[in-house]
Amino acid sequence: MKFKRILLKLSGEALAGEKGHGIDNQILSDMASEIASIVKQGVQVALVIGGGNLVRGISASAGGMNRAQGDAMGMLGTVMNGLAMQDALDKQGVDSVVMSAIRMEPVCEFFDRRKALKLLFTTDSCAALRAIESECDVIMKATKVDGIYTADPVKDPTATRFDDISYKEVISRGLKVMDTAAVALCMENNMPIFVFKMEKGNLTRAAIEGDLGTLVHC
User: Fold this and answer.
1) Quick one: angle between helices 67-91 and 25-40, nearest 10?
2) How far apart are the C-alpha atoms of 139 and 8, rounded to whole Å?
3) Using CA atoms, how far apart are residues 142 and 66, in angstroms rounded to an integer?
4) In which domain, by residue range, is 125 found?
5) Pairing assessment for the beta strands 138-143 and 5-10 based on DSSP bridges
6) Pairwise pLDDT comparison (118 vs 54), residue with the higher score
7) What is the pTM of this model?
8) Contact 106, 119 (CB under 8 A)
9) How many domains are there within the chain?
C-alpha cells in the first residue's frame, strides 16, 4: 500500500454537501465506509474534522461576535462532527475514540499524545500538529475539489490543477490549501499533504495507490 498511517483532514463544509450547512448523512456514511475499508486493509487512520458546517468563528466575528467566542463555538462544532463520525464508524464495525484538546469528559476524551499513538483513530494547524505527533506518513485533506489549482476552479474556469507542488510554492502563491502556519509546520517536519476530492472511492484509492489529487511536498 502507498501509506501505512495517515491523518485525514476532513472539512466541515465537505460534510454538509450541497446543503451548505449541517451534516449530510449520506456523505457521512460514505466517508465512514471508505475509512472502514482502508482500516481493514491495514492503514492506520487519525482523523481531524473541521466545524465550518455548523459554525465558523471568522463568520461569527464578522457579524459582531467576539472572535474568541466564535472560535470557541467552532471548536464545539468540531466535536459534534467527531461524534457524528464516531457513530457512523460504529455502524461500519470500526472502533474509534473522539479526543479534544478542550476537556469535555464524558462527551469525549482529552487529547493525550501517547494514548492517541496507541489508539490511532483520533483545524489546519491542529491537523498538522496531530499528524506530526502521531508520526503519520501523510496528511490527507478531503475537499470539494479534486486537488490544488492555480486559482479557485469554481470561479476561474481557466484554473489548472497541480499533480504535485512544493510547500514553498503553495505559500508564495498564496494557495488556500491549509493556513500558512500549518503548511510551514508541515514543511519544517517534512510532512506531505495530499489534497483530493471527497467522493465515494477516492479515499481508498488515495491511501492505497496515491494516484489522484495533488501532493504537497519538499
Assistant:
1) 60
2) 6
3) 30
4) 5-217
5) parallel
6) 54
7) 0.71
8) no
9) 1
Entry field: residues in the chain: 218
pLDDT in tens, 11-27: 888 898 888 889 999 99
Distances (CA, A) of 100 to 17, 62, 63, 92, 113: 24, 26, 27, 23, 11
Here the cell at position 2 is: 502507498
DSSP classification of residue 8: E
Contact between 218 and 165 under an 8 Å Cβ cutoff? The reply is no
* Of 124, 79, 74, nearest in space to 97 by CA: 79
Span 94-122, pLDDT tens digits: 999 999 988 999 999 998 888 887 776 64
For residue 47, give the 3-state DSSP assignment: strand
For residue 202, the tally of other CB atoms under 10 A from its CB is 19
Can you name the residues that pair with 10 across neighbouring β-strands? 49, 142
CATH number of the domain residue 80 falls in: 3.40.1160.10
Grid cell digits, residue 98: 473522539
User: What is the SS3 assignment for 206?
Assistant: helix
Structure-block grid coordinates of residue 127: 491537523
Q: Hey, what's the torsion of the CAs at 72, 78, 79, 80, to 10 degrees? A: 110
Contact 150, 160 (CB under 8 A): yes
Supply the pLDDT for residue 61.
66
